[in-house]
């Protein structure tokens, strides 16, 4: 029922004028008052009723006043009991409502005071009618007992306890003071001292209660903080006892395993979990009393999901240090592990072809090498490099080149058996790994050769991209992996060597053998030696004579480089020039050759061996250096040579491949008077149109034609036509590699205007020995 304005006004007025309402009352005090009153009021009710019955039975007390007094006090007590019980029910909901607590305390205070006044009135109302000493004693004991009991019940409020005690004992004290008897005065004084003692007890008890309250409040706050920390922390946590049963878990645990709020896991037996690895870890914690950590897969018992968890499990001890269970917290690493696995997959996958990449290949090779140690079976490794793939990219674009690589990957995957794997190392290089496929090396080599030919046959016939039908071949290096091979890097190195061996020799495939390794080591050593500061000091030029066939006159020479190595001995150009081209050392070697050639020309002239010209070889890649033309012109000027004294030789294949790129250099030097010679003519493209466009000065017929012309009419016929065409286009012709008189005579029959070069006329010699040459042999 809602309270009316008059009721609120009365309470407001009381709150304004009563000092007890101006002081803030702790909710705890109010709660304690009502809690103690709930028990003490029933005792007071029974005591008062008992006293009323005793007094009524005595017969000396007037009935009407007794009934009025007893009725009033009993009604007040009953009303208080009802109010206290109702207030206690609402107390939890209104615990933090300070205004409500003030009102409850005020009503409780006033009702208690009214009760004490009514109880104290028993003395002035009824004692004059009582002449029985026993009844006198009963009344005194009743008042003192009620005062003591009130102090014990009302101690949470010292003010109320003192007020209640004073109001109930003051009439008794007054009664004793009115008596002339000395003992009565002493009794009054004793009762007063009792009131003082009870007040002190109430104050001490209240102080102790408040101290306990503050301690409990702090403890409760800590418990609430810990409970909030446990409940609200985002990390899933649960407790378990020594029987491995769940005692408590937090919200994060419940949310993680998608446990509904209607379902409880309290008391769940952890031994029923699917993942027994985690259960064994908990057993270890309980057994050893030490924390452990579990990091691994977890198959959920509560959901159908699988996780990867990192769990930290620690033992729990009570205050006596006794193990009572454990606590576990865990972190969900499922997404992290899946991301790592995905990244590892990406890291081992070639994005273009979806084949395994170099990293994947290395991992599988390492695994194969470890596995193969335990058995006798041999494995095969095919190292493929696509020939002439760069022109496809340059001509049709990189997108088309990517399509070619995808199609090659598809074809290779279609060729290999299920147990074999295909990898793309990068660019146009692929690897096929066929593990443990052969019992003997002989069978492995046969099988490897057959499969290598099958690869090239497929690539040459079935590579169709859009409107293009391509014919691609691969250079394939093959390694037979034996159980004795334990070094993956060494296997890859040998595969690479064998692949380049196949490429350099224009073979479909090549098996590794130790001679390749020796050549590789030698080439590496030569590479290093060419980088030394004293490298050029070890070089020397040899000169091979060129004769005019018709008159046998020594007309020129070809400068040929040699390397006097301190440990390897005399090296020919075939042993180091190709390496110099690869490493870029050819630039400084070429410059040294041309300068030494100029010096040699002057030397020959000054020592009575004048020549019309000296030729020297040039690699097409030397023309790509910015200063090549200037270098030639500067050398001619430095040594005061006629430009026609220097002939630059370039091979036919090198010339055709680079003609458009270096055409300006050819023309510039030709206009300056420097003569160019086409070397090894007839073994390359042999394009007559280039002869016309180039307008070079000299054409050198390759030795292969000279060797066979004595026994082959076709070779002689071709040489004759080459000489005729060259003469009509203004070329001088040099025949290389003449080693016999018969060859010389055959050439003389074809044309006496040919110049000749070969061992028949003289071996390459140092310049000092070259000057000592005897007059040329007569024809």
Automatic annotation (TrEMBL):
The keyword Transcription regulation does not apply. Residues 377-514 form the GGDEF domain. Pfam families: EAL (PF00563), GGDEF (PF00990), PAS_4 (PF08448). Keywords: Membrane, Transmembrane, Transmembrane helix. Residues 519-778 form the EAL domain. The chain crosses the membrane at residues 41-60, 66-84, 105-127, 133-152, 183-202. Residues 222-293 form the PAS domain. This is Diguanylate cyclase/phosphodiesterase with PAS/PAC sensor(S). The lineage of its organism: Bacteria, Pseudomonadati, Campylobacterota, Epsilonproteobacteria, Campylobacterales.
């Amino acid at each position: 029922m809602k309270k009316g304005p008059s009721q609120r006004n009365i309470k407001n007025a009381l709150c304004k004028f009563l000092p007890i309402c101006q002081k803030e009352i702790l909710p705890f005090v109010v709660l304690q008052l009502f809690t103690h009153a709930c028990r003490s009021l029933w005792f007071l009710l029974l005591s008062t009723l008992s006293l009323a019955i005793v007094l009524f039975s005595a017969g000396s007390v007037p009935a009407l006043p007794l009934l009025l007094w007893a009725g009033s006090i009993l009604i007040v007590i009953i009303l208080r009991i009802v109010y206290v019980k109702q207030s206690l029910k609402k107390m939890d909901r209104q615990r933090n409502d300070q205004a409500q607590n003030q009102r409850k305390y005020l009503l409780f205070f006033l009702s208690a005071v009214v009760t004490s006044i009514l109880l104290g009135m028993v003395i002035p109302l009824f004692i004059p009618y009582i002449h029985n000493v026993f009844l006198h004693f009963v009344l005194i004991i009743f008042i003192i007992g009620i005062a003591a009991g009130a102090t014990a019940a009302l101690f949470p409020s010292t003010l109320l306890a003192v007020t209640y005690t004073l109001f109930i004992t003051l009439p008794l004290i007054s009664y004793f003071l009115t008596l002339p008897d000395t003992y009565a005065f002493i009794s009054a004084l004793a009762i007063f001292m009792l009131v003082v003692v009870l007040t002190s007890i109430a104050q001490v008890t209240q102080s102790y209660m408040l101290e306990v309250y503050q301690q409990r409040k702090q403890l409760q706050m800590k418990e609430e903080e810990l409970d909030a920390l446990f409940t609200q922390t985002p990390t899933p946590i649960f407790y378990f006892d020594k029987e491995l049963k769940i005692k408590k878990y937090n919200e994060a645990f419940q949310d993680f395993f998608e446990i509904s709020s209607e379902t409880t896991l309290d008391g769940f037996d952890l031994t029923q979990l699917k993942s027994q690895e985690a259960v064994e870890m908990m057993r270890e914690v309980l057994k050893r009393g030490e924390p452990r950590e579990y990091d691994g897969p977890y198959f959920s018992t509560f959901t159908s999901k699988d996780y990867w968890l990192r769990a930290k499990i620690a033992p729990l001890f009570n205050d006596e240090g006794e193990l009572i269970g454990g606590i576990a917290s865990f972190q969900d690493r499922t997404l992290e592990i899946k991301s790592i696995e995905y990244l590892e997959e990406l890291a081992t996958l070639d994005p273009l072809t979806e084949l395994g990449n170099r990293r994947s290949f290395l991992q599988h090779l390492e695994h194969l090498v470890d596995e193969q140690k335990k058995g006798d079976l041999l494995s095969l490794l095919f190292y493929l490099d696509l020939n002439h793939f760069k022109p496809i990219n340059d001509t049709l674009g990189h997108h088309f080149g990517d399509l070619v690589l995808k199609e090659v990957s598809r074809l290779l995957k279609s060729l290999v058996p299920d147990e074999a794997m295909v990898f793309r190392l990068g660019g146009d290089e692929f690897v096929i790994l066929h593990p443990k496929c052969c019992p003997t090396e002989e069978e492995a080599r046969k099988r490897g050769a057959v499969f290598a030919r099958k690869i090239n046959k497929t690539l040459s016939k079935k590579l169709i991209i859009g409107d293009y039908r391509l014919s691609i071949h691969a250079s394939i290096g093959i390694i037979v992996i034996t159980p004795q091979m334990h070094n993956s890097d060494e296997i890859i190195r040998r595969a690479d060597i064998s692949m380049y061996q196949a490429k350099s020799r224009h073979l479909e495939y090549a098996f590794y053998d130790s001679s390749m390794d020796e050549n590789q080591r030698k080439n590496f050593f030569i590479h290093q030696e060419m980088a030394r500061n004293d490298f050029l000091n070890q070089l020397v030029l040899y000169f091979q004579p060129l004769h005019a066939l018709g008159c046998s006159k020594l007309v020129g020479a070809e400068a040929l480089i040699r390397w006097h190595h301190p440990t390897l001995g005399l090296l020919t150009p075939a042993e180091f020039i190709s390496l110099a081209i690869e490493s870029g050392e050819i630039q400084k070697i070429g410059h040294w050759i041309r300068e030494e050639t100029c010096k040699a020309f002057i030397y020959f002239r000054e020592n009575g061996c004048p020549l019309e010209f000296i030729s020297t070889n040039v690699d097409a890649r030397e023309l790509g250096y910015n200063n090549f033309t200037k270098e030639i012109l500067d050398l001619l000027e430095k040594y005061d040579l006629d430009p026609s004294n220097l002939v630059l030789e370039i091979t036919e294949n090198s010339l055709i491949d680079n003609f458009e790129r270096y055409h300006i250099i050819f023309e510039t030097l030709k206009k300056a008077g420097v003569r160019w010679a086409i070397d090894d003519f007839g073994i390359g493209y042999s394009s007559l149109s280039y002869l016309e466009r180039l307008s070079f000065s000299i054409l050198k017929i390759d030795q292969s034609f000279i060797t066979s012309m004595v026994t082959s009419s076709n070779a002689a016929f071709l040489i004759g036509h080459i000489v005729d065409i060259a003469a009509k286009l203004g070329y001088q012709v040099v025949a290389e590699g003449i080693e016999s008189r018969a060859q010389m005579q055959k050439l003389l029959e074809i044309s006496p205007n040919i110049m000749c070069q070969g061992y028949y006329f003289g071996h390459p010699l140092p310049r000092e020995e070259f000057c000592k040459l005897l007059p040329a042999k007569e024809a």
